[in-house]
Amino acid sequence: MAVSSHLRSLADRVRKEREIQKLTQREVARRAQMSLRSYQDFESTGNIALKKLAAVLYVLGRENDLSGLVSAQPSYSSLDEFEKSRPVGAGNRP
């Protein structure tokens, strides 16, 4: 899945949460201290600064969801140990 697809998916989930809470885009933008246009752009494209995303999630009462975005990586004692842990066909992506 491309990065843009992940961002759109995130924006869709935030939009659904906003709608469940019966908040308008204008109200979320105001509470997150961002312009309405910036918030609308986020919901339509998924593009948003991390600081603003944190503010939006705080407004929606979902600020704890940020901790799950990047999970802790296991530590390895050697390159061999790392390579053995990777799924077959994982490629050389960073």
**Assembly of the depicted chains:** single chain
The first-to-last residue Cα distance is: 15 Å
| Fold-level CATH name of the domain at 3-66 | 434 Repressor (Amino-terminal Domain)
Weakly predicted, low-confidence segments = none
How does this structure look, described?
The chain is mainly α and 94 residues long. It has a domain at 3-66: Orthogonal Bundle (434 Repressor (Amino-terminal Domain)). The chain has helices spanning 3-20, 25-31, 36-45, 50-59, 79-85. It is elongated and about 50 Å long. The chain starts with a helix and ends in a 9-residue tail after the last helix. The model has no long low-confidence stretch (mean pLDDT 86).
What are the SSEs and their pairings?
Layout: H1 3-20, H2 25-31, H3 36-45, H4 50-59, H5 79-85
Helix pairs in contact: 1-3, 2-3
Top keywords for this entry?
94 residues, mainly alpha, 434 Repressor (Amino-terminal Domain), 5 helices, elongated
Task: Put the structure in a nutshell.
The protein is an all-alpha fold and 94 residues long. The protein is 55% helix and 0% strand.
